[in-house]
Amino acid sequence: MKWFSTSIVAMLTLAFSPLTQAASFDCGLAKSPTEKAICNDQALSLLDEKLNVAFKAAREQWRGAAREYVLNDQRAWLRDVSSEFSGQPNNVAALKQLKERYRKRNRHLSSPAYPLTGVYNKANGDKLVVYLDKSERLGVTALKNDLNIVRSCGNEVIDVPIGSTNISLNLSEGAKNALDLCQLRLGFSANRVSVVKQGQCSGANYAGNFTRDQKDYVGNYRFNK
């Protein structure tokens, strides 16, 4: 009976004590408000654990420089989340938002479309921002550097089957009129995407080869928030 009482006390102590070890880091070294929130909230700590597993799994699926992109992308996301959480005046609302950001990131890293995402540059300065929306469906925004033209698929995002590297998207947003159609066929390989254009695309020629920018991230573009 003495053993039973001691065990109950120990479990209750653990249940109502701050976590000493979060999934991806030592809580004894926690410094930022985000890290401290993870260490003091069991649900958030579990989300952090799941995210760490998803991140490692994502990196294992990539090769060469692509692995570096996953690492840099994750670091950029963590900086963005930490900055957003630290600037919130309402801690309860901020914690709820932080958990949702972690859930969303978990879904993104686990999505079969995640390996296609990124910011791709053409030699002339044009960009393709390939992103996942809140439902893990793939979307594209194309930016024509010298003409200041932006075309986007808007709500016409698509589901991407596992292993798919060839997709087609209609960039309906940004059209000048009903005849100003723009469809892109994209073929992905490692850190590159080859684009075939159909339609006027507001006068922009998005056809050609684009290379993933290792130092630019989808999170830098506000439409993805």
Return the CATH topology of the largest domain: Lipocalin
Instruction: Give the C-level CATH assignment of the largest domain.
Output: Mainly Beta
How far the N terminus sits from the C terminus, by CA atoms, comes to 55 Å
For the largest beta-sheet, the strand count, sense and barrel status come to:
8 strands, antiparallel
Read across the widest sheet, the strand sequence of neighbours is 4-3-2-1-8-7-6-5
CATH architecture of the largest domain: Beta Barrel
Give the overall shape.
elongated
The percentage helix is 25-40%
Mean pLDDT: 84
User: Structural class of the secondary structure composition?
Assistant: alpha+beta
How many structural domains? Answer: 2
Q: Which value, in Å, is the CA radius of gyration?
A: 22 Å
Instruction: Provide the β-strand percentage band.
Output: 15-25%
Strand count: 8
Low-confidence stretches: 1-18
Order of helices and strands: HHHHHEEEEEEEE
Separate helix tally: 5
